[in-house]
Design brief:
Layout (H helix, E strand, L loop, with lengths): L8 H12 L2 H5 L8 H9 L5 E5 L5 H7 L4 E6 L2 H13 L7 E5 L12 E7 L7 H14 E12 L1 H6 L3 E4 L2 E3 L5 E3 L2 H12 L1 E9 L4 E8 L2
Helix pairs in contact: 1-5
Bound molecules: S-adenosylmethionine.
S-adenosylmethionine binds next to α1 and α4.
């Protein structure tokens, strides 16, 4: 497996949030409601759904689901992200019994079986090395209840290439500042998910913006 360049990723993300605050809200001040995969997910979820979001960041995606009545468990390995997220949910008057936020890495999650109606991986597991991503896909299946929904957002390789981040192996990108991406792409991800037992509900590509969202469902 190619070795990431530069700083470790946790430092990269913590310093990003410490220096720049709620970067996702600054980038998308109207929220994420225009993103097709997330919109489709929100149409399919029951109102009081139990949602796990990995790499929750500052909670922009989760906020949309909380406002529909979901209960959210959110994890991120950056304590700075979790604090910004908590402050946002409080400011938005989300009742405190509707969310639980934890500082944890995706790799160490142990959350039992069949607990969630939805696992949301919104542009997060793309930052894990390939083997850890595959482990996480299997764990997501385990965490979900039968028929539970799994939404993955991932950047396209071309998009990250254009940003000048060094490609250290095919589809794997790393920078001296600690940014790291292993981008499997929609076709490979779909086939891995099918092997695990998921059914693909839809793949929503935003080619010009350089990302795709993949919605899958756990078999019964
Ligand atoms: C691109 S941001 C997306 C944030 C959020 N999901 C959103 O859509 O606004 C990726 C997030 O994943 C978190 N992250 C990256 N690798 C992680 C890991 N191994 N464990 C936990 N969180 C991780 C980062 O701290 C960051 O907040």
């Amino acid at each position: 497996m190619p070795k990431p360049l530069g700083r470790d990723q946790k430092t990269h993300w913590s310093q990003t949030y410490e220096n720049r605050g709620d970067i996702w809200h600054a980038m998308y001040p109207d929220g994420y409601s225009g993103f097709e995969g997330l919109r489709k997910l929100s149409q399919m979820l029951k109102p009081n759904a139990a949602v796990l979001e990995v790499g929750i960041g500052t909670g922009e995606a989760a906020l949309l689901l909380l406002k529909m009545g979901a209960h959210v468990t959110g994890v991120d390995f950056s304590p700075e992200a979790i604090e910004l997220c908590r402050a946002k949910f409080i400011k938005e008057h989300i009742p405190e019994d509707r969310f639980e936020l934890k500082v944890a890495s995706i790799e160490e999650l142990q959350l039992g079986s069949s607990r969630f109606d939805c696992v949301l991986d919104y542009y997060a597991s793309q930052h894990l090395p390939r083997d850890s991503q595959l482990d996480f896909l299997r764990k997501a299946y385990q965490f979900l209840k039968p028929s539970g929904l799994f939404l993955i957002g991932q950047f396209s390789q071309d998009h990250i290439r254009k940003q000048g981040i060094k490609e250290i192996a095919p589809g794997t990108f790393s920078s001296e500042t600690g940014h790291f991406f292993c981008l499997l792409g929609a076709t490979t991800l779909s086939s891995l998910l099918r092997q695990i037992g998921f059914r693909i509900v839809g793949v929503y590509e935003a080619k010009r913006e350089g990302f795709f969202e993949l919605l899958a469902a756990k078999s019964r």
